[in-house]
UniProtKB/TrEMBL annotation:
It comes from the Bacteria. Pfam families: FeS_assembly_P. Residues 13-85 form the MIP18 family-like domain. Signal peptide: none annotated. This is MIP18 family-like domain-containing protein. It comes from Kordia algicida OT-1.
Amino acid sequence: MSEITIDTDALGEKIVRVLKTIYDPEIPVDIYELGLIYDVFVNENSDVKILMTLTSPNCPVAETLPLEIEEKVKSLKEVNNATVEITFDPPWDKDLMSEEAKLELGLL
């Protein structure tokens, strides 16, 4: 019986590509470039955990955005399961945004 090893780096890159298709409803920038994704963990069972934040604790998509992320990440055939954990430590601020996002929003 052979062990199947997964390329967690390649899977991580695929997950990031999926995250870049999900946009904040109030800001025309994807959640990855916006700096809302703090970390993506993939274990040997292809279970994915995403640690993220929101632009504010009162964010109107606090209920729906994590579900959308889980569903889209789970749609990757290599992913067994996906969970999203929201944290506000550290709190989000515009310094977490990529240069591309800052340029898009006229902050550069």
